[in-house]
């Protein structure tokens, strides 16, 4: 079991570090009182290997409880439970700037100057910093830099531990654009099977509509362009630390064109080695509303 204690200066990036460790498969707990560490570790050891990576965030927010940390660490060592300490820090000017931007007060100077709280915190954390296995200065780190550093230390060492998850969503504009969309493509420029009597009852999941939509010259040109765009965008999104991408494809009602196109895009992404899933939000919306009226 890999056991990491995350600590450091307020504003140095512990929250983002926790998110990164969660993405690496760690079971993370924030601000657990030190006296509970031993019992928590024992419970994890009894999970039959289901919990084999743990990260506990501890800092001066724990108040008087934080003073118990060294006693707890000594107890862990006596019980031969191996642990690692990750300490995050940053320069005074960077920390002051971060507190100003977030408009937060420092935990040790709630009514005073931030710099005074930072100085006091450095003193309180000096001993734990001296014991740290890894110290990361985040002063010049972007989020992606911190993710990559943590992956090297606590993950597999590859730049992206968890692949970017892509969901391709078909929808109808008359029902609104999906709120969580990252990319939205409008395919209402394509000929509409809705106006062809023998195709109207089917959806883009059915062969007649699928063939009608995908065999159009306009569709083939569109597919080439969108595939090229996504091949460029997806690796760059992943590089920036994005973990989920919602690609929304819309037509008028979300039943014919958008469904056929979304299916084709999802298949293309998976064949290109990406991790993509499909969702048809409005494919049965007109049918369901018609049934309700009846």
UniProtKB/TrEMBL annotation:
Recorded superkingdom: Bacteria
TM helices/strands, residue ranges: none
Gene3D superfamilies from the UniProt entry: P-loop containing nucleotide triphosphate hydrolases
Domain RapZ-like N-terminal: 1-151
Positions bound to GTP: 59-62
Alphabetical list of InterPro entries matching this protein: P-loop_NTPase, RapZ-like, RapZ-like_N, RapZ_C
Residues at which ATP binds: 8-15
Keywords annotated in UniProt: ATP-binding, GTP-binding, Nucleotide-binding
RapZ C-terminal domain ranges (all copies): 165-283
Keyword Nucleotide-binding: yes
Protein name as catalogued: RNase adapter RapZ
């Amino acid at each position: 079991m890999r056991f990491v204690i995350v600590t450091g200066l307020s504003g140095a990036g512990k929250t983002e570090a926790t998110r990164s460790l969660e993405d690496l498969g760690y079971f993370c707990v924030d601000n657990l009182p030190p006296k509970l560490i031993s019992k928590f570790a024992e419970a994890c050891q009894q999970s039959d290997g289901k919990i084999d990576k743990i990260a506990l965030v501890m800092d001066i927010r724990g108040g008087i409880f934080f003073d118990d940390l060294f006693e707890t660490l000594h107890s862990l060592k006596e019980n031969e439970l191996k642990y690692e300490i990750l300490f995050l820090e940053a320069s005074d000017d960077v920390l002051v700037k971060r507190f100003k931007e977030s408009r937060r007060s420092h935990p040790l100077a709630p009514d005073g100057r931030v710099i005074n709280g930072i100085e006091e915190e450095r003193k309180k954390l000096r001993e734990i910093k001296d014991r740290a296995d890894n110290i990361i200065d985040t002063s010049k780190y972007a989020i992606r830099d911190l993710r990559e550093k943590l992956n090297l230390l606590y993950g597999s060492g590859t730049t992206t531990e968890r692949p970017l998850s892509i969901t391709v969503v078909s929808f109808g504009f008359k029902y609104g654009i999906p709120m969580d969309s990252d990319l939205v493509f409008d395919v209402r420029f394509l000929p509409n099977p809705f106006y062809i009597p023998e195709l109207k009852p089917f959806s883009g999941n059915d062969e007649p509509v699928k063939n009608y939509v995908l065999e159009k010259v306009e569709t083939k040109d569109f597919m080439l362009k969108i595939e090229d765009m996504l091949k460029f965008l997806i690796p760059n999104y992943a590089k920036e630390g994005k973990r989920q991408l919602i690609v929304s494809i819309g037509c008028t009602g979300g039943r014919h064109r958008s469904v056929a196109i979304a299916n084709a895009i999802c298949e293309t992404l998976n064949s290109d080695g990406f991790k993509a899933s499909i969702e048809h939000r409005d494919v049965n919306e007109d049918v369901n509303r018609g049934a309700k009226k009846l």
